[in-house]
Backbone:
């Protein structure tokens, strides 16, 4: 795969994946095209050598793996982990608000959202809907309005002269988006609008909406930006970028060695769910794949937890340790925290550095300032659950947890090349 091809595919993936369910569906389609076989957790499994499989849980988390030519207990497994969710605004169960002729929806903040950038943006709406069909059957479907349908207007500076110095955002009162104007006697429900949208997208007749998990998202598509096309701007780069990198690495391996990609939901809210990294999903898959040899397989395995890193912001350079400030387009970032907010140790970092050096590719290191708190990833959670040697790494970015984020055009492809080599390495530990 060439650099331009990688970034073209990345932009398509980002635009097609406004929610975790859409991201997993997009990954599923690529895995199907590559000959991977879907396994169902409800069924008995027959996992053979030199085969490729994937498993989906809740529609929002996925584990895909190649079994390789050798027994995993003897060869170990080359694992890459990422997460499918991103901070956003989710629609409440009873969301309708009618005020001054405006139809609005109440929203709940999901994850550590940087809220100010959500104002004055064209917003669309997507997610999963559970409904009763015409045959009295409970079904799920994905929905994506695919056009601007909402807006959160700022309060004009004329009405708040202190806006640039002291304005704060109240998530309950300030964030409900405006969707349309309606007459005073209008009784249109949000569920009716959802049913109409499902019918228009798929032709499915909805008898009754039973539930949904819907998120507003930035309607502006991902794009290459900058005077010299140095950057990619998009929503959800944290962490769909890593999902895409891991997927392409798995698809482009030789298949000779056992390799696995896990993309979990709910990382942004602590990973505590059945499909999150603190849940049993990955362990359950490994139990059924490796059986009694699982412990030996894990002892020979390594996990690379891929999640974006904070690049040095030129306007806020003092927010970084002076010796550990990652620069966009200067290579992926090995993330180190001795308090175990990241799972990197000297051995796991050495594996990545060695492969990267062999390929002649750049890499960087991030350590948070000693007087600042440190974020975390699925890395420490997965390492603790499995007992697997783990590395935390990520592409440097700006605007993490904003509605629109920024990365360099080179770093994603660089990390893809290293992970593709890692996944087909005969020995990693």
Residues:
């Amino acid at each position: 795969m060439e650099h331009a091809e990688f970034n073209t595919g990345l932009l398509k993936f980002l635009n097609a994946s406004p929610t975790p369910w859409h991201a997993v569906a997009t990954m599923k389609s690529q895995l199907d095209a590559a000959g991977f076989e879907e396994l169902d957790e409800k069924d008995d499994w027959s996992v053979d050598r030199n085969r490729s499989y994937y498993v989906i849980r809740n529609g929002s988390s996925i584990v895909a793996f190649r079994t390789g030519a050798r027994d995993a207990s003897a060869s170990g497994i080359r694992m890459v982990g990422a997460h499918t969710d991103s901070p956003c605004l989710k629609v409440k169960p009873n969301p309708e608000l009618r005020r001054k002729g405006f139809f609005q929806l109440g929203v709940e903040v999901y994850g550590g959202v940087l809220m100010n950038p959500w104002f004055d943006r064209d917003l669309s709406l997507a997610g999963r809907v559970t409904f009763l069909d015409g045959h009295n059957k409970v079904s799920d479907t994905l929905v994506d309005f695919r056009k601007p349908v909402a807006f959160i207007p700022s309060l004009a500076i004329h009405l708040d002269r202190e806006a640039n110095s002291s304005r704060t955002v109240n998530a309950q009162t300030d964030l409900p988006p405006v969707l349309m104007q309606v007459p005073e006697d209008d009784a249109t429900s949000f569920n009716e609008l959802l049913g109409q949208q499902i019918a228009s997208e798929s032709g499915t007749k909805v008898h009754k909406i039973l539930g949904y998990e819907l998120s507003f998202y930035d309607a502006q598509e991902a794009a290459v930006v900058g005077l010299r096309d140095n950057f990619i701007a998009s929503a959800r780069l944290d962490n769909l970028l890593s999902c895409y990198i891991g997927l392409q690495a798995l698809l482009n391996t030789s298949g000779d060695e056992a390799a696995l990609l896990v993309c979990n939901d709910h990382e942004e809210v602590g990973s505590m769910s059945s499909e999150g990294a603190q849940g049993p999903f990955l362990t359950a898959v490994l139990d059924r794949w490796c059986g009694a040899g699982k412990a030996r397989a894990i002892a020979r395995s390594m996990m690379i937890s891929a999640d974006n890193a904070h690049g040095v912001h030129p306007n806020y350079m003092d927010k970084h340790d002076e010796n550990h400030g990652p620069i966009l387009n200067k290579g992926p970032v090995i993330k180190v925290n001795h308090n175990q907010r990241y799972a990197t140790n000297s051995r796991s970092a050495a594996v990545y550095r060695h492969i990267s050096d062999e390929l002649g590719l750049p890499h960087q290191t991030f350590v948070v300032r000693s007087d600042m708190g440190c974020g975390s990833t699925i890395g420490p959670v997965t390492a603790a659950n499995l007992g697997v040697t783990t590395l935390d790494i990520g592409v440097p970015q700006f605007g993490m947890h904003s509605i629109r984020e920024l990365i360099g055009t080179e770093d994603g492809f660089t990390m893809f090349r290293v992970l593709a080599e890692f996944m087909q390495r005969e020995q990693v530990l």
